[in-house]
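ok posting inputs for the magnesium ion job
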Amino acid sequence: MHFNELNLSQEILQAVEELGFTEMTEIQEKSIPVLLQGRDVVGRSNTGTGKTAAFGLPAVESITNADKRTVAVLILCPTRELALQAYEEIRKFAKYKRSVKACAVYGGASMEKQIFELKRGANIVIGTPGRVMDHMRRRTLKLDGLRCAILDEADEMLNMGFREDIETILAAAPADRQTVLFSATMPPEILAITEKFQHDPVHIKIKAPQRTVSLIEQHYFEVAMGRKTDALRLLLTAYSPSSAMVFCNTRAMVDQLTEELQKNGFRAAGLHGDMKQAQRTQVMNSFKNKATDILVATDVAARGIDVSGIDAVFNYDLPQDNEYYIHRIGRTGRAGRTGAAYTLISGRRQFYELQQISRYIKADITQLPLPDKEGIIAMKTEASVREVSEAEAIHSAYEVIDRLASMGIDYREAAARLLTKTLSADLDSIPEFDRPKPLRSRNGAKTVKVDINIGRSRRIAPNFILGALVDATGMSGKDFGKIDIFDDHTTVEIPAAETDYILESTNPMKINGQQVTVKLWDGKTSKSHYSRPRPDDKPRFDRKKAAYGSRRQGDKFKDYIPNRKKRAKNKH
Ligand code: ADP
Ligand code: MG
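and the output
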């Protein structure tokens, strides 16, 4: 359905046309007519489906010349970036509508300037809940004339702990206002808000999978522990994306990785919640106008950010939530373009976590080998040739070549050498990288023992120990070897290659409700009380098979894949 089939004013249709929108997206088609009627709406659809226009166009349409002194529409967004982005889009919709005065209010920016804007007669206010509350307290923002409240990315606002603020804000507005809520997911807390603050809302759910995800190639790379930064440098060198996003789970990791990339000559910048607003705006602008090639960000800082032409998304850390994976990779492949998403995994647990994500999104995430030097040369050569094939050659170049050819110089040879020369600077910067050993071939691998400070005196059985180890590491029961339980401690055989990972992921760990410490075994023990044989121990006699099998307690853990625990979300 075309926008001009809607009951929208000429000014808005003109602006929409200039934005290049012709057909409405599904969420727009379903919600705009209902919103124009003044109904409450609960809209659920994925990122990148055009929700801003879905609520923004009716909001802009609703403003009249009479709205000179009243805030008629309030749009709440979870982050400063999203508020700014929605603000900019609303301004574009209102380009030909003089009566609309939009104003963005968000933390970390000058209060005075916002107060000035509000006083000038803002009638559409877009803001983050915290700053909106600030202005309400100072009475620089009054909601007594509010006709419409819009909660954009409601799930994320709740995740960020804005529930009370949202309730206070909604309670301060006239009860007969329109309330609109958009969200990518619908956790129960949202339904609670809906019940409390909406009147007979129309529920709109776009079930279709996100249009763009199918256009995104999804791959993963196995990387040895502690080598993710090198692997990322290698991949950035190999693929040389002109615009890429790299996701990390913590602010510290964003800072560290950004610094590392910059040190190695990449045009990278970091984005996270600890940064000053001015700095964040600068980073975003520089990424949008391609002065920065690589944006390293946390999930929340990057949420909903709409930058076109991102070639690739890298998951440096696995997302802490399956939905985040979708949000992350949705940064690329926007507006029908193709894109690629690459995930770096280290260790078995991450392998299992990625498998769960793959099941969740019902799409294949296939493994690629890290490119080696030869592979990189091939990729770079191809990229260079493609690049020059679009450029024009100067006339005299042909003359030189013809002359050289007539002297018997080999074109092919000359072209190859020229390419090598052009590429040599790039090739020098390829990180030294040993190929990591594949995660899933550990036959005959060396083993070591770890020592756990819990034993027979606490009524511990081998399957308690094994269960806890499997849970903590995400590894499978058969990865662990012999378990010896002593009076006050237990030793477990583990693959030597996974020592660091296992020590890291098992401290802290609880067994039978008790906090334990796991260390490398120093070889001091008392007499063994109970042994679990190695899973690869062969029974010596066939007739002993039954008895032997019954003691292989580890067997039931063979295909055990721990449920990914929903970890507490970091607030960025
Ligand atoms: P969401 O809020 O659902 O994540 P946005 O509102 O940020 O999505 O829109 C994503 C992108 O799609 C923006 O660049 C927007 O300008 C563009 N867009 C929105 N509606 C249309 C449309 N009908 N036709 C073409 N592009 C659109
Ligand atoms: Mg949005």
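notes: Confidence is low (pLDDT under 50) at residues 536-572. The chain has four domains: 3-205, 216-370, 374-428, 447-541.
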